[in-house]
Amino acid sequence: MPKQKTTNLWKTAGLVSMISSCLVGGVVGGLFLGLWLDRKLGTMPLFLIIFLFIGLLTGCYGMYKVIQPFLGDGDDDR
Fold first, then answer.
1. Which PROSITE patterns is this protein grouped with (predicted)?
2. Count of structural domains within the chain
């Protein structure tokens, strides 16, 4: 396998792992924070749902920031 293809394979694998860790980390963080607050305050599904949604949004934003350098800025069309 040529060196260029091997390098691209590792870059792609790194990008995929960063994207998945952003998404999973946000959701799992929201899950634990929501469960902890619900147990402390006795409002069982309320904060779990809120922080799962916030974690999902945070994960999607992090995923966008990771892939933003690969999207380009659109100056190539001019």
1. PROKAR_LIPOPROTEIN (PS51257)
2. 1
Contacts (Cβ under 8 Å, ≥6 apart) of 65: none
Q: pLDDT for 8-62, tens place per residue? A: 888 889 999 999 999 999 999 999 999 999 999 999 999 999 999 999 999 999 9
Whether residue 35 is contained in a domain is answered as yes
CB 50 within 8 A of CB 21: no
Q: For residues 62 and 22, is the Cβ–Cβ distance under 8 A? A: yes
Kindly write down the DSSP assignment for every residue of the chain, as one continuous string: --HHHHHHHHHHHHHHHHHHHHHHHHHHHHHHHHHHHHHHHT-HHHHHHHHHHHHHHHHHHHHHHHHHHHH--SGGG-
Proportion of the chain above pLDDT 90, given as a percent: 72
Token pair listed for 46: 């309320």
